[in-house]
Amino acid sequence: MVDSQGQPDERPFERMFYPVERIPFVEWREFSGAKPTVTLVAAVTVLAFVTGLSNLSQPQLVVDGPLGGIVPGTRIFVRFAGVLFAFPLALVTFGLSRRRRIAWLAALVLVPLLAVFPFLTGRPTEIPLFFLIVVTVPFLIANRGEFDTALALSSLQVASLTSILGVVVYGTIGSYGLREQFIELHNWGDAFYYVIVTIATVGYGDITPRTVEAELFSLSVILLGTGAFTVAVGALVGPAIESRMASAFGTMTASELALLEDHVVVLGYGDVTESFLDQVADGTDLVVVTTDTDAAARLSDAGIEVLTDDPTDESALVDARVDAARGVAVASDDDAANVLAVLATRNVNSDVRIVAVANGDTHVDKLGTVGADEVIDLRSIGGRLLGATVLDPDRDGDAGSPLEGLLGRTDGDFAGVATADPDSETSAAGTDGETSAAGTDGETSAADPDSETSAADPDGETSAADPDSETSAAGDTEP
């Protein structure tokens, strides 16, 4: 393709999402946004785990920190505290990658607590962990608005988690109340330990009931605990399995798209969509929203992220992160659906740039009215290409041919593209403007934007279709 100066334009579709060319010196969001925050928390998790293993490997852990003598039980707790914190932090990191608000709150509590450990042990190996935490906490605070997704639990999940908590409380209080009827059960710690061991069906045998009443109580803890645990596993693991199965069929979930920013959302899948995807550069993040499961599977195999949902549904657009998108391309084969998709997109994000495809003349004006910034009229483009090619048979398809001229850029607009500014002196439709893609009334045509000679201009001074003009396309010159 060529522009008005005859230079190649390799990415015309992508340029449509850049009405104003701005080249920032540094993309600061790449270094300070949600993704770097998740990466830092993950690094803290790994370093805490490694530090905890280092403490566990010591034959005798010396606690020489300034807070070591103040906090009770430091010597016992610090030995495995790093590993103990690493596992919940791993879950927190996973939640942050899904932009969960509860994960952000948990990280804001757990990460600063880890910073206390170097002051307890005084070991030089924990100094890197301390400085990494000092860097991570400001990132968490600065990006608090990025992690705003609520944790949506089903009623079954809430009930199962509540039942497990209830069994633990019931077993701990009951076993402590019956401590005189157990062997080696003396305090609340022993009671809690006994309940966990019993529910897990480990049965070490160090604490055992010695009366019938204690045995019946232990039996009730086993039945209630294993039942609640089984239901909880099914309720919590089931959605994860469903998500994996959906991914196998080419479907992305909303949580998997949570960290997308500055991407292009394609609403609908049609004949134009495949060509559009071929034109977009490989470095551009794309999300296609379509109800076509077969197309979703093919696109997923090609490495393109797909959300199988209704592109006219505002909730689906929220899941596709339209609020953080660079631009939206509406390109299904159904113009009525395209109108609804543009309207829904504008309701979700009033500032995003929208480019819509019109498969017929009926909905061109409607697409612009409901909020599309650019409307590509496929039928108009096809007709002008056909007319320009027929009237210019001497062209061999090289640079400057009618095909490239009509598809190239002319004064910032695309031929066959209806813009949202009807007062512009340069019109994409080219009916009354001084510069026209079709060249019906203008002095310059798309076939040669710098020439006064037009292949499709019957009113111009020189015309290929006018046998009476002073100079014809056949090369005859009248005296």
UniProtKB/TrEMBL annotation:
It comes from the Archaea. The keyword NADP does not apply. It comes from Halobellus salinus. InterPro entries: 2pore_dom_K_chnl, K_chnl_dom, NAD(P)-bd_dom_sf, RCK_N, Trk_Ktr_HKT_K-transport. Its main location: membrane. It is a multi-pass membrane protein. Residues 389-479 are annotated as: Disordered. The chain crosses the membrane at residues 38-56, 76-96, 103-121, 127-143, 150-171, 191-207, 219-241. It is found in: Cell membrane. This is RCK N-terminal domain-containing protein. Residues 261-376 form the RCK N-terminal domain. One of its GO terms (molecular function) is potassium channel activity. GO terms for cellular component: plasma membrane.
